[in-house]
Design a protein that fits this description.
six-stranded mixed sheet, alpha/beta, Purple Acid Phosphatase, chain A, domain 2
Length: 465
C-alpha cells in the first residue's frame, strides 16, 4: 500500500498581503479536501513572511504576521533575515510568544549558547500511517549582523550534518526548511540523508522542482505569487519514498478568497495607522526631495548620517526617500511612508582613489536611473548620490556630458592615498552596486537602528511640538 502525503509551502511573502486572502482560502479548501480523503497534509513557511516596509508589520513588529500564520494553522516555520536581523533582540525574542506552530531553527542561539525558548532545531511529525517526517529549519548565515544584535548564529552546514546523524534512526523522511538561498540549497543537497529541501531567500521559482543528487529542491518565488506543493508517496510497509513530485499554484489564477482574512487585514491596517500616527515634531517648511537632484530632504539625510555615524563624509542615494515631507506636524507613520526600507547605517574606510572612483561611478546617468529591488531597498530608483562633506566641481562639456574636474573633502583636495571614514548605508556593502565598497575590508555596522530611526531622532530633536 502507498501513503500519499501532501505538503504545501510558502516563502518570502515580505508582508505583501494582497494575495494572502486567496492563499488562505486555497489552503483551507485543500485541507478540507485531504481530510475528506483521509490523507495527510502539512503546511510550512520558509521565512521572510514579514517585512517592515509594510505599516502593519512595522506597527506590530511582526506580531500580525504571526497571527496570520496561526490562523492558517501552519505546522512549522523557519525564520528569514527579515525576521532575524531587522528586529531588535527583544522584539525577535517576543515575536513567537503566542505562536501555535513550531518554529524550527537549528542555527540560531542566545548569547549564552542556548537555543532560544521559542525555537527548536527540528520537529518530528508522525502521519496516520506512522511515517515519521523530520523537519529541520535553517536560516542564512549573516554572522556579523546577528552578533551586532546580540545573537549567535552558527554555520548551517555543520549543524545540519550533526542533526542528520541524530535523526537517522528516528525518521523515515527528512525535509529541510532552508532560508539559505538556491546556491546553498544545491550544496545542501550533496549531504546524504536529505529527501526534500523547501527553499527561500533568493526568491527562486521551481515550477516543477529540481532534482540535485536525488534531493527534491523546491521554491515558490516571492510575495505570495505562488504556493508551493509537494506530493509525497511512501510505501507503508518499508517506509521508502516511492515518488516525490513538486509543482506551484499561481495565486493570480485563484478566484476565491477568505473574507474573514480580508477583514482581519483591514482592521489591522486601521490599527497600524493609529499606532504610527504618533506625532514626533513639527516641520516649519516643506522638506522637498527630488530623486535626480540634490534637494533639502536628501541633503538633510546625508548630513544626519555623517553626524550620527561620526564619519568624515557621508553618501546616500536620494532614491531612499520616496517622497517629500509637508510642513506641519509629522508622525512616525509619515517617516515610515517616505523611508520604509530595512536599511541600517554603517561606516566604511576607503582610500582616496577608491572614493574618487565611487564618486565618478555614482554620478553617471546609468547609476542615477538604475531601477532595482533587494539589498533592503524598497524604493523604485537609485537617484542622485548625495554627499555631506564632499565638494564636486562639475563641468558640462560641449556634447552635454558632465565631467568631474575637482573633488574636495571638507574643503581640501582629495588625497588619493589617504584613508577616509565614510558614513553610508548597508545596502552599498552588499551585492553589485559598488564592488569597491562591498569588498573593502573594514566596515562598521550600526544595528538595530534604521535610516528612519535617525530621521525620527533628528527631526524630533530639532522640531519640537
Amino acid at each position: 500500500m502507498i501513503e500519499k502525503i501532501h505538503i504545501y509551502h510558502t516563502n518570502d511573502l515580505h508582508s505583501h498581503f494582497e494575495p494572502w486572502p486567496k492563499i488562505v482560502q486555497y489552503i483551507e479548501d485543500m485541507r478540507k479536501l485531504h481530510s475528506e480523503k483521509n490523507e495527510e497534509m502539512f503546511l510550512f513557511d520558509i521565512g521572510d513572511h514579514m517585512d517592515r516596509f509594510h505599516p502593519i508589520t512595522e506597527s506590530t513588529f511582526g506580531k500580525l504576521n504571526v497571527r496570520l500564520l496561526n490562523q492558517l494553522n501552519y505546522n512549522a516555520v523557519t525564520i528569514g533575515n527579515n525576521e532575524g536581523i531587522t528586529l531588535p533582540y527583544e522584539a525577535l525574542n517576543e515575536l513567537y510568544r503566542d505562536a501555535t506552530f513550531d518554529v524550527v531553527l537549528a542555527n540560531l542561539f542566545t548569547p549564552d549558547g542556548t537555543r532560544p525558548s521559542w525555537a527548536k532545531a527540528y520537529q518530528i511529525y508522525t502521519t496516520k500511517e506512522n511515517t515519521r517526517i523530520g523537519i529541520i529549519g535553517l536560516t542564512v548565515f549573516y554572522q556579523l549582523f546577528y552578533e551586532l544584535l546580540g545573537w549567535k548564529i552558527h554555520d548551517p552546514f555543520e549543524l545540519l550534518r550533526t542533526l542528520l546523524v541524530e535523526l537517522n534512526d528516528q525518521t523515515d523522511v527528512i525535509i529541510v526548511l532552508s532560508h539559505l538561498g538556491i546556491t546553498e540549497d544545491e550544496e545542501l543537497a550533496k549531504i546524504p540523508g536529505i529527501d526534500i529541501i523547501l527553499g527561500g531567500h533568493t526568491h527562486h521559482l521551481f515550477e516543477e522542482g529540481k532534482i540535485v543528487d536525488d534531493v527534491l529542491l523546491c521554491g515558490a518565488g516571492k510575495y505570495g505569487q505562488y504556493i508551493g506543493y509537494v506530493e509525497l508517496k511512501v510505501n507503508q510497509a518499508s517506509k521508502a519514498i516511492v515518488e516525490k513530485r513538486a509543482t506551484v499554484i499561481a495565486t493570480s489564477q485563484l478566484n476565491s478568497e477568505s473574507i474573514s482574512t480580508k477583514e482581519t487585514l483591514n482592521d489591522a491596517m486601521k490599527e497600524s495607522e493609529l499606532i504610527l500616527n504618533e506625532k514626533i515634531g513639527h516641520i516649519p517648511d516643506e522638506l522637498i526631495n527630488n530623486w535626480f537632484e540634490i534637494s533639502p530632504f536628501s541633503q538633510l539625510l546625508a548630513d544626519i548620517l555623517k553626524e550620527w555615524c561620526a564619519g568624515e563624509i557621508s553618501m546616500v542615494n536620494a532614491g531612499v526617500l520616496l517622497d517629500s515631507l509637508p510642513k506641519g506636524p509629522i508622525s512616525k507613520g509619515e517617516i515610515h511612508r517616505v523611508c520604509p526600507h530595512p536599511i541600517n547605517p554603517c561606516n566604511v574606510w576607503l582610500k582616496g582613489y577608491e572614493l574618487k572612483e565611487i564618486i565618478l561611478q555614482a554620478n553617471t546617468e546609468r547609476m542615477e536611473n538604475l531601477r532595482f529591488k533587494g539589498l533592503g531597498f524598497r524604493g523604485e530608483v537609485m537617484g542622485k548620490m548625495v554627499f555631506s562633506g564632499v565638494g564636486i566641481d562639475v563641468k558640462v562639456l560641449s556634447d552635454g556630458l558632465k565631467h568631474i574636474q575637482n573633488i574636495t573633502i571638507n574643503g581640501d583636495p582629495i588625497e588619493l592615498k589617504r584613508t577616509y571614514k565614510v558614513s553610508t548605508i548597508d545596502m552599498f556593502t552588499l551585492g553589485y552596486l559598488f564592488p569597491i565598497i562591498r569588498d573593502t575590508k573594514r566596515k562598521e555596522y550600526f544595528m538595530p537602528e534604521m535610516l528612519r530611526d535617525l530621521l525620527i531622532s533628528k527631526l524630533a530633536e530639532n522640531h519640537r511640538l
